[in-house]
Amino acid sequence: MSYGYTLNLVSLNKSASARLLGVKLGRVCIKYGVPVAEVAECLGVSRQSVYCWFSGKTRPSVHVVARIEKFIIRLEP
Asked: Which residues contact residue 46 at a Cβ distance below 8 angstroms, ignoring those fewer than 6 apart?
């Protein structure tokens, strides 16, 4: 379930608001075992940005929201 993710990040993601797009992205990626490095590369951002989104610490900037939504759609069956 948490392939490549620390228990701390998984815990932070679970306790963060599911209404946040970055948290939703994190839940999908954790569920399907998509590595943070792959997410960051596909979205053209740093791994640190992805970690912060997954934990709900920060929100993605407006210019990356559409890419995140498309990424989530590709992962979800």
From this structure: 40
Tens of pLDDT, residue by residue over 3-57, are 568 899 999 999 999 999 999 999 999 999 999 999 999 999 999 999 999 999 9
| Average pLDDT, integer, range 49-76 | 96
Residue 2 tokens read as 């948490």
Up-side HSE of residue 58: CA atoms within 13 Å toward CB? 9
**What distance lies between CA 64 and its chain's CA centroid?**
12
Q: What letter does residue 39 receive in the DSSP assignment?
A: H
Measured CA to CA, the distance from residue 42 to residue 12 in angstroms comes to 23
Helix 7-15 × helix 21-32 angle, to 10° = 140
